């Protein structure tokens, strides 16, 4: 049998995770030895339950593995193990890399140029817009966006990457044949078409709470750096940051309202050394990615001089309060309000709650 067959077999059994597989290798010398071991040796394996030992012995058949492979094929799922050329190189270098990845979609070489965008499920509309915009802009630079497909910031980041014509990868805390959360089924389909949905968990694995902190090491591991948009002080997002720091990854954070609970975690990260970012260029400069010139393409052809001036200010300072635009340009608030309304009609800017303006 091939190495991948042993891993597929073991990984399909509930109660056997990465740590147990490593212990099997150390105890038996190889997975081939485990496959051939007498039943009494398996029952004697330290700290194994009878239920798991019974399942190991029951499933130790070529027919079982072949049937599981048929299930993978019918679900259009590929399996990648660490020795596979398609296994992400960056992921090999983390502590406890997954021995197997289940993939729906495709992982390509260009995905090594990736940034994770993460944050709170219960985010503000401001945070959701920022995640979407940053992902969309970075997608334009060929950067793959990594996230976890959860509600809130994760989903906004995936959608931004897709709308920007880029690639995105979702790392799940369940099997790739399960859509979690269920309402993201259409988003999941689009991610598969323009990137990949991946997991280290076997088919049918339910989204148990304990799976998500573990999968966060993969989100960090696939990425050059991690951008936190919004996170509370006790957010699970901060677990991903812990992994990122352990892995020596860059950590970026969006400064937030000091009175907002979902900004307390991000503001704390900045105080502890995360790089504060207010525009995509703050991230691009870390990797010497050439800054695009702001040229007025076809959608800016019909702008008046005043409208162009407002656009330039928003681009440099966004997100920016409408009163700040008035102050910078020395224009009456009523004049700026009128210009913003025109730019909204032209679908070039968006006004967020609290009269905060961003480019679309």
From TrEMBL:
Q: Which SUPFAM superfamilies match?
A: MCP/YpsA-like (SSF102405), RuvA domain 2-like (SSF47781), Winged helix' DNA-binding domain (SSF46785)
What positions does the domain DprA winged helix occupy?
302-355
One GO BP annotation is: DNA-mediated transformation
Query: What is the name of this protein?
Result: DNA processing protein
Could you tell me which InterPro entries the record lists for this protein?
DprA, DprA_WH, DrpA_SLOG, RuvA_2-like, WH-like_DNA-bd_sf, WH_DNA-bd_sf
Organism name: Paramaledivibacter caminithermalis (strain DSM 15212 / CIP 107654 / DViRD3) (Clostridium caminithermale)
Write out the similarity annotation.
Belongs to the DprA/Smf family.
PANTHER family per UniProt: PROTEIN SMF
Residue intervals of the Smf/DprA SLOG domain: 79-287
């Amino acid at each position: 049998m091939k190495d991948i067959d042993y891993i597929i077999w073991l990984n399909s059994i509930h109660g056997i995770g990465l740590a147990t597989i490593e212990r099997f290798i150390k105890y038996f010398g190889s997975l081939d030895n485990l496959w051939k071991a007498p039943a009494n040796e398996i029952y004697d394996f330290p700290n194994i339950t009878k239920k798991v030992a019974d399942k190991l012995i029951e499933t130790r058949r070529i027919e079982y593995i072949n049937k599981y492979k048929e299930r993978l094929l019918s679900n259009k799922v590929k399996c990648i193990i660490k020795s596979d050329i398609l296994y992400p190189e960056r992921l090999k270098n983390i502590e406890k890399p997954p021995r197997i990845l289940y993939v729906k979609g495709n992982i390509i070489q260009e995905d090594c140029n990736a940034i994770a965008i993460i944050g709170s499920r219960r985010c503000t509309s401001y945070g959701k817009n920022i995640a979407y915009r940053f992902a969309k802009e970075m997608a334009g630079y060929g950067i793959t966006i990594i996230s976890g497909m959860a509600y809130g910031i994760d989903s906004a980041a995936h959608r931004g990457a897709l709308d920007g014509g880029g690639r995105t990868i979702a790392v799940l805390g369940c099997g790739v044949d399960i859509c979690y959360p269920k309402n993201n089924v259409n988003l999941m389909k689009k991610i598969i078409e323009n990137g990949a949905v991946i997991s280290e968990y076997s088919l049918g694995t339910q989204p148990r709470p304990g799976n998500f902190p573990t999968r966060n090491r993969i989100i960090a591991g696939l990425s050059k750096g991690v951008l936190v948009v919004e996170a509370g002080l006790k957010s699970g997002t901060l677990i991903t940051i812990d992994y990122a720091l352990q892995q020596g990854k860059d950590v970026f954070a969006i400064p937030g309202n000091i009175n907002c609970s979902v900004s307390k975690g991000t503001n704390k990260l900045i105080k502890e050394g995360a790089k504060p970012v207010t525009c995509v260029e703050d991230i691009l400069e870390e990797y010497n990615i050439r800054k695009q010139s702001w040229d007025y393409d076809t959608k800016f052809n019909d702008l008046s001089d005043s409208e162009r001036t407002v656009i330039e200010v928003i681009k440099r300072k966004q997100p920016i309060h409408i009163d700040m635009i008035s102050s910078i340009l020395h224009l009456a608030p009523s004049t700026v309000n009128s210009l913003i309304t025109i730019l909204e009609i032209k679908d070039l800017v968006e006004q967020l709650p609290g009269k905060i303006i961003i480019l679309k």
